[in-house]
Amino acid sequence: PYDHHHLRLRRHHHGRTTVTPNSSSHRGSHFGGRIHDTPSRNEEHEEPEEGVVGGSEDPTAEEEPYSGDLPSLGLRRYLARSWKPQRCDKKRKICKLKGSPGPDCCHKKCVDRKTDRLNCGKCGRRCRFTKTCCKGRCVNLAFDRKNCGRCGNKCRKGSYCLYGMCGYA
């Protein structure tokens, strides 16, 4: 896996943000120097220079250390495919670590069975399309008096939940 602390953000005067390797030892090694945002319909597609993310180097760009916030959907998709998450089938303790998606291990992935629609309450229990997982139960937020509009939002006694609102009339 690539250590994201070796990345550098550059904010350009025209609003575009690029990510480049932080040191020359990493230049082009993981990225191959060819990662850039998908151009919009109105932009011409230009091939970036070697070792540059998002086009040519901009001398007016401000450099700052990479904060962990990914600047673009295209880059997030690339990194999601290239980073391999650890599997919990052999090391269940990794699910308890800070930053884990959840404390439970289901189908070799860390999940939170209290909120995961694909593993609600127990591994493999899926909530239907219209339902959400709240505290390990599949509920319909539009009509559930104990989870009206969002998990844990209880309607007052005598009131009911309709379209996710308590006492809607």
TrEMBL record:
Q: Which UniProt keywords apply?
A: Signal
**Compositionally biased spans, kind Basic residues:** 1-16
Stretches with biased composition (Basic and acidic residues): 34-44
Residue span of region Disordered: 1-72
- UniProt keyword Repeat present: no
The record ties this protein, via InterPro entries, to: Stig-like (IPR006969)
Say yes or no: keyword Signal present. yes
* Family, per entry: Belongs to the STIG1 family.
Record's protein name: Stigma-specific STIG1-like protein 1
Species source reads Nymphaea colorata (pocket water lily)
